[in-house]
Amino acid sequence: MRFAPRFSAPSMSMPSMPDMHLPLRAAQAGSACIVLGLTAYVANWWSNYWHDMSPLEINFLIFTSGVSLLSTLYLAAAQAQRLPARIAHPIARLIVDTLTMGLWLGGSVRLLIFLKSRVCFGNVCNVAKAAIAFSALSWWLFVVSTAVSVWMFFRARARGERGMVMQPKVVDEA
């Protein structure tokens, strides 16, 4: 009796999700933290300068950063098999990945349109533009993770497997 991996060896061009999910999730969390800090700075400046609530576009990116941190924590724990199978269902992971990707796209586009329609100058404008750049990076990172998750999901379904995780399979040598 010996153990053989369920999936074929990863190619040099496309590593399998178990090999790349932790660095990708770390990049997503780091980018979300950067956007959270930048947008919090802009919201604080706006509140102090205008004595009014910060714009919805800024608040939406703050919300998206928080959701992204929570979803990244969930997705990393689910991929590392730290959650029960019922909570870490492959379709639930795909939905969380896709919704977070959509939030990043919506937030970065909304802030970009907001800044284009205003006179923007000074340090706070540069910080807001950096928030747009990092939110676009976050969107791209979630596009990659969603694409890889969809690929792994359909690959596992084609092989008749129930999950998207790499587990050893017992091969009987007779």
Task: Describe what this molecule looks like in 3D.
With 174 residues, the chain is mostly helical. The chain has one domain: Ferritin (Up-down Bundle), CATH 1.20.1260. It has 4 helices and 2 strands, in the order E-H-H-H-H-E. The protein has a two-stranded antiparallel ribbon. Helix 1 packs antiparallel against helix 2. It is elongated and about 75 Å long. It starts with a strand and ends with a strand. The model is unreliable at 7-15 (pLDDT under 50). The chain crosses the membrane at residues 58-78, 90-115, 127-154. Residues 21-147 form the MARVEL domain. It is a multi-pass membrane protein. InterPro entries: Marvel.
Q: Any idea how many domains?
A: 1
Helix/strand/pairing category: mainly alpha
Portion in beta strands: under 5%
Stated plainly, the CATH topology is called Ferritin
Order of helices and strands: EHHHHE
Largest sheet, strands/sense/barrel: 2 strands, antiparallel
Chain-averaged pLDDT: 86
Q: Radius of gyration, rounded? A: 20 Å
Span from first to last CA? 9 Å
Bulk shape: elongated
Q: Assign the CATH architecture.
A: Up-down Bundle
Biggest β-sheet: strands ordered side by side in the sheet:
1-2
* Count of strand segments: 2
Number of helices: 4
Unreliable runs, pLDDT <50, ≥5 residues? Answer: 7-15
Assign a percent range to the helix content: 55-70%
CATH structural class: Mainly Alpha
Domain MARVEL: 21-147
GO cellular component, one term: membrane
Keywords: Membrane, Transmembrane, Transmembrane helix
Organism: Trichodelitschia bisporula
